Amino acid sequence: MKGLVTVTVITLLWGTLAIAGPLEFFAGAGPSAAALGSINHREIEAVNVIIAQLNDDPRFDSDVPTLPALGSGLAYSAGERYWITDNLALGGELTYFKSATATSGTYTTTSTNEVSDVSLDLQCQSIGLLIGGRFAFLDVGLRLAVDLGVGYYYSGFNTAITFEIPSEFSPTTIPLPNGEEHYNGSSLGIEGGISLSFPIADWINVGTSILYRSLTVQHLTDGEGNGFDFDGDGTAEVADFSGITVQFNIAIDINLSL
């Protein structure tokens, strides 16, 4: 009986290998952008209003550049796909995205020589583990396909802020939290798009893809459970990491058929 079971298992494994398609390992990198809508259009713009007012005030020497919008950066990915048919592949993928923005400078009050330092450094990053697939709908030497994946993203914000307001500056300011802080959160997300690839050898191909990421992290907290409140108004920020990625990819095929 044991011998029969062994023979059956071996037969099934042999049959599986006989019909198996290629296993594809791939990696890619390229420019990416995240919306970060409320953080860019409310919080960073509010900071830039204060900086602009200080820059235009004749009582203070030196200018501080305004803080650029956050969201542009680089994305990386790596994973594997198993081609279950000539047109359909399923697999998993690890993705990483990072963006940063910064500004710095000093203001010197001409009447008192008071020096006020300004240094703003913001970074955000997101790591995603996705499962999904690729469907090739055109293969004429060049392969055109659609990609779709869903998974879990672990995201974070790092802030390093020094914002010293000159004592003679009277307009309303925002209570930026000075110091270094680290905030983390997680959420489900979806990524999909279209890809174009072509072989440069039987076992390797290169290509490019345009992908859209749908990801919103509702809660970012530090180690003590405090929410990410960039402008200090008492309301935690929502981080919208949705955006477009353009990647350049390379893939290596391993044929599992016997």
Overview of the molecule:
- With 258 residues, this protein is mainly β.
- It has a single domain, classed as Porin.
- The chain is built from 2 helices and 11 strands.
- Strands 1-3-4-5-6-7-8-11 form an 8-stranded antiparallel beta barrel. A two-stranded antiparallel ribbon has the order 9-10.
- The longest helix has 20 residues, at 37-56.
- The two termini are 28 Å apart.
- Residues 1-19 have low confidence and may be disordered.
Features:
258 residues; mainly beta; Porin; two-stranded antiparallel ribbon; 11 strands; disordered N terminus
Would you summarize the structure shown here?
The protein has a single domain, classed as Porin (Beta Barrel). It is built from two helices and eleven strands. The chain has helices at 2-19, 37-56; strands at residues 22-33, 60-61, 72-83, 88-109, 115-139, 143-163, 179-201, 204-214, 216-217, 239-240, 243-255.
Tally the beta strands: 11
Roughly how many Å is the radius of gyration? 26 Å
Please state the overall shape, judged from the principal axes of the Cα atoms. elongated
Order of adjacent strands in the largest pleated sheet: 1-3-4-5-6-7-8-11
Strand content: over 45%
H-E order: HEHEEEEEEEEEE
Number of helices: 2
- Distance N to C terminus: 28 Å
What proportion of the residues is helical, as a percent range?
Answer: 10-25%
